[in-house]
């Protein structure tokens, strides 16, 4: 089971529920491993606008109706 006993953000929970890894998120969104790790594990982390756009583009490949507000507190 993915994400067992890990502190996860909304993005982290989403990728866990859909069976994806942080490494796959890195490649799909073209972001670094450290950034992906923070996005997936730290619910208080607020990435740059450019990074949010990249991540949301990758997420919308899985869930076309996903909204930025569902994952980030803007």
Automatic annotation (TrEMBL):
Domain HTH cro/C1-type: residue ranges: 16-59
Ranges that cross the membrane: none
GO molecular function: DNA binding
Protein name per its UniProtKB record: Helix-turn-helix protein
Source species of the chain: Halalkalibacter krulwichiae
């Amino acid at each position: 089971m993915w994400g067992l006993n890990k502190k996860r953000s909304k993005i982290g929970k989403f990728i866990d529920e859909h069976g994806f890894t942080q490494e796959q998120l890195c490649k799909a969104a073209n972001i670094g491993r450290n950034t992906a790790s923070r996005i997936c594990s730290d619910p208080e982390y607020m990435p740059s606008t450019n990074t949010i756009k990249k991540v949301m583009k990758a997420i919308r490949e899985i869930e076309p109706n996903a909204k930025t507000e569902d994952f980030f507190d803007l």
